[in-house]
Amino acid sequence: MASSLVLLAGCGHRAPEADTTVPVIALPVQAADGSDAGRFPGDVHARYEMPLSFRVGGQLATRYVNPGDVVKQGQPLAQLDPKDANDQLAAAKAALAAAEHRLLFATQQRDRDEAQSKQNLISHLQLEQTQDAYASALAARDQAQQQLSLAQNQARYTTLVADHDGAITSRQAEVGQVLAAGQAVFGFAWAGEREVQVDVPENRIDGVAVGQAATVTLPALPGRSFAAKVREVAPAADAQSRTYLVKLTVDQPGQSLQLGMTADVVMQPRAGHAAVVAVRIPATALFHQGEHPAVWVVRTADSTLELRPVTVARYGERDVLLADGLKPGERVVMQGVHTVSAGEKVTPIAPPHPEDAPQ
């Protein structure tokens, strides 16, 4: 019995188990190019873009141009059926001719009555009636002239002409279609000034201001870059994308900068604003805490996990550029972000395949 008690006492004093750790793929993050945080994709537009339309309504009879055509100022672009306008013009001419004839008769009658009134051959009342008829005829003639001028304008407006040199960007009406006054027929871009339009996320719009310098490069023109300045920043975000439209005027665009080209815009840091120190992580390292992006950071002191909110500057095909929330050198979980939890003790390991490591 004594020996049994000794054995039982020995079993009751086991050595404490070592704390278990979970292996996770985690690597230090590296600083990205500082210009990446201020880089935005965009496309080339004309400084002035607008729809072209007739000032009068009617049936579209002819189109003289198509999308992509380059046109000159004063060149006819389309034609409405002119029959109604020509009929109105003919009626206005006839009305003017009748008004001029009545005015001629009223003028002759006024001259006769004034001469007779000086000889006291007619009453003063008759002279006043004659003068009133002359004034009415004169006003009717002036009104008829204005109606003729309006009818001439209406007839001229049945031909749509280019008011500037430019290019047709779209077609929005077909031959035979009945158009209302002001209904768009073509999209039109003026020749000359070019600008680049970019969409800036709301968490980065405070780093963009009117007059800010930028550099524009285009995949279609390798080896070339263009200086630009921010001309306009939208006062409100788009309701669907939650981005702000920013327009940049390109200095000396030349003929090579074509409409619709994709562009890469790099904003220069604003005066008094430090350049953003951005870091790049693989897309697999990004975790979402509700609607907000976050990453799992391995604490250096005790190798436990911390879920830290971050600010995304730009999403790429395989990686994500972070503008805030991480510092270069901090160790981040790169894969398996949905299988770990806050406070969990981990052992960082390298990816099993070297190509999975962030570049």
From TrEMBL:
Start and end residues of each Multidrug resistance protein MdtA-like C-terminal permuted SH3 domain: 278-337
- In this entry, which stretches build a coiled coil? 89-154
Q: Which residues cross the membrane?
A: none
What compartments host this protein? Cell envelope
State whether keyword Nucleus applies: no
Where the record annotates domain CusB-like beta-barrel, the positions are 196-268
Q: What InterPro entries does the annotation carry?
A: Beta-barrel_RND_2, MdtA-like_BSH, MdtA-like_C, RND_pump_MFP
- Chief place where the protein resides: other
In this protein, which residues make up the domain named Multidrug resistance protein MdtA-like barrel-sandwich hybrid?
A: 55-184
What are the alphabetically sorted keywords of the record? Coiled coil, Transport
Whether Secreted counts among this entry's keywords is no
Which Pfam families does this chain map to? Beta-barrel_RND_2 (PF25954), BSH_RND (PF25917), RND-MFP_C (PF25967)
PANTHER family xref list: HLYD FAMILY OF SECRETION PROTEINS, MULTIDRUG RESISTANCE PROTEIN MDTA
Tell me its family: Belongs to the membrane fusion protein (MFP) (TC 8.A.1) family.
Q: What protein does this entry describe? A: Efflux RND transporter periplasmic adaptor subunit
Q: What is the lineage of its organism?
A: Bacteria, Pseudomonadati, Pseudomonadota, Gammaproteobacteria, Lysobacterales
